[in-house]
## 1
Amino acid sequence: MKPDFDSRVGRIGLFVNMASERRAQFQSHCAEQFSQLMLHEHFDQASAALAKQHVDLLVLDLSGYRDSVDLAAAAALIRHRGGAPVLVLCPYVHTSWLPELMAWGPLQYRVSPILSDELQQAVEQMMTRPVDAVAAAQQQLLDKETELRDLLTIQRSLQRALSSVDDLTAMATQVCKALCSFPGVRHTALLHMKERGDLQLVAQESRNHLDLARLLQRRDRLLQSALHEVFPPLLAVSEGELVLLDAPEKAGEPELALALHDRDVRMVLALPLRSEAGGPVLGSISMMFDRHIAFSREQFACFASLAQFVSFGIGMSELKHQNDALAGQLTQMSTVDALTGVANRREGEKMLDSEIRRARRYGLSLALITFDIDNFRSVNDLYGYPIGDRALRTVAETVQGKLRASDTLARMRGEEFMVLATHTCAIDALKLAEKLRLTIADTDLPGCNTVTISLAVAQVGPEEDGVGVLGRLDAALHRAKRSGRNCVELAMP
């Protein structure tokens, strides 16, 4: 598009890029749109030129720049413009610079690489004043009102989605659905960084039949994908920065561009997920659009806030799972004997009281068996405590293997254990006790001679409590010891 002579009279442009070939390209494509075009290599040269004369359009080409020093110099030029037209050409791998530059003053941007026709059109649009300035200003206000209303809607939708922190997958699914409510969005996805750098596709919402797992040919270890250096959601994780790809072909991967175009994708925005600035990247969210949108400063800020909200939700979900795991461990520690893995005394007495109440309420029979290892102190003295501990574990495992699922084995103290046998009368409990005695006597214990156990059996009386039945069992167990050990005694009522 070539402007006529009258339209470019008096137009002064200033283009900045450190590469001579970039300056030459801009001059070749756009020089005819200005009556005077200045080309500068350094930002300080451009600053000096702006101080000397009026410039209608400043074009900052950020291709080739890398660090924050360059960004600060570009920001200073934008601030110096005081609202006068600025066009920023920004490589898509550094589009995270755009929101930062917008903080210093109004600007328009195009993502590079950019075709010559598109560049000429962008320059012409910025240099052309509206025929009806009042109508243009009113339309701008209406557009801004619509934009803010859309941002408020998606923010509210996302806040509702983050209420499901109990389940990360369910929350991620709701987040993706909420993001799809933004105008033009056809596909959203949430990627989460698991342990050891395993980036996984947790959820996606598609309005265009695009399957991200199929596109990347995997659902986990996504950073090992062949597209990890060009696809925005993966770049956002590896670089920890916002990535905006406003045309799929600009990624330089023809197959990727074709696949996205086939699904009506014209633009991809990806944002990293981190709960705090400089913190570890937790993953990324991806939004694919069916149209080109020139985002405003407010839109970029809103998307960044939404990404942080999602990061908080992920952090809360992970924290809840950690708390649940710790609570489970604490529960186990408070109810399970650490050495043998069976119920500890506290849990055993709690279960006894509970089963007594249940048996009394429903008129059920309930029996108890207590036993201890004969001459256990001698085992420790002769073979050492490690062998003694192994004997305790072996006895507990062997007895547990002979019990029903409804029975409970608890370690009450030292080498003494209790079996809580539900729906069992005294005669059946005696048979079970004898089976346990014979089984232990036939069990080989590595590192020491075979050990034996002495047992006591009691059926809980209709009005008896836990203290009473345990007292009877204790007396019966002493009789078994006095009778020569390795035997069973019935506790008398």
## 2
Amino acid sequence: MLKEFKEFAFKGNLIDMAVGIMIGGAFGTVVKSLVDDIFMPIIGRVTGGLDFSERYLVLKGDVPDGTKLAEASKIPEAVLLTYGNFITAFISFLILALVVFIVIKKVIGSLKKDEEEPKEDPKPSEEVILLTEIRDALKSGKPS
């Protein structure tokens, strides 16, 4: 069993997976920055200055209107539903899913394209041509 684990761990599968996880984590950070720093300000501008990161709903407690999220979350009896963070995370997910879809479609498309391209038949050797002529002559019953 130890031998099988060594083969698995050092064959490349585990290393490939680790590299993929590290790149995925870094890519997630880039997408989060893209959403938080680029898209959300644009969406906020289009929606009339709405800042999604400050959007919340008070479920319990007494929070004065217009209180910033950071201040409202410090109120001990307040229970908040911070739906603005969810909207931001959902937009991040959509962008990440779109990018992954495009990349996968491009990679899979190029692989399928390679498979579908007809392979050029190599020119048959002289022996094959001669054998084909002999076969055809035998079938027709006439010597060449």
## 3
Amino acid sequence: MITKNMEKALNGQINKEFYSAYLYLAMSAYCNKNAMPGCEHWFRTQHDEEVIHMTKMFDYLMQHGGEVHLLQIDEPPVDFGSILQAFEASLEHEQFITKSINELLDVAVAEKDHATQVFLQWFITEQVEEEANVKEIVDRLKLVGDNGAALMMIDDKLSLRAAATVAADEG
């Protein structure tokens, strides 16, 4: 049985994961509007991953006797300024989520909730990958600057991102 404190913290993280999906869908729409289909695809795939993250937490909370409280989701921005700024906002958001997952683990440790500590390890590893992937894109976009041909090459590469899936062993 999960403690009320852990339940509240997980519900807060579920809300953040919902917002992440919402944010990435907004970024996908922004890229569509700016004729960057590869970036649009990359952000749409990121949206799908965030839905998977939210669903994993949602299911975990219910499986451990917790009650899910779906909180209001804030409206994401519509305009991100530039493709580079959209990816910079993505990196900043992933850093925020990493901090939030770490704080969630702190709650699990304080509650002596060993099962949740183990469960959260997957998310901690995932966040390392999330930040590294976005940082690489930001670094490349900064490197090419306003070079249209180089931006198109990056956009083409981002269109190759595989769809988000959940492996059977990840539950």
## 4
Amino acid sequence: MLSKKMEKALNDQIQAELYSSYLYLAMSAYFESQGWAGFASWMRVQSDEERTHAMKIYDFIFTRGGKAVLQAIEAPQSDWKSVNEVFEETYKHEQKVTSLINNLVAIAISENDYATKNFLDWFVDEQVEEEENCVKILDTLKLIGDSKHGLYMFSRELGSRAAH
């Protein structure tokens, strides 16, 4: 059984994950409007992944006898200055999500809620992967610089990402 504190924190995380999904969908829309189909596709897959994360938490709450309470989702930004700015914001956002996940783990540990702590371990690992992906993308964008050809090729490469 979840404590009320843990249940509320998990519900807050559902909201954060759904916001992430919404943010990445907004980034996908931005890329589509700029003609970067590959980047748009990558962000759309990212958006779907974040929604899946929210649903994992949603299902877990019920598994542990709690109640999922959906909250309002803030409208995300819809315009950026460049491809680089989008991915820089993505990295900052993933760092924020990592912090939120770490806080959930801390609550679970403080309450001796080992079932929730074990459940959250998957999210801890996922955030390591998310941040690593962002760093790799940003490193590649630095190498590309202002090359439109390089950006085009990189967009095509990222567009080949399949959902998992």
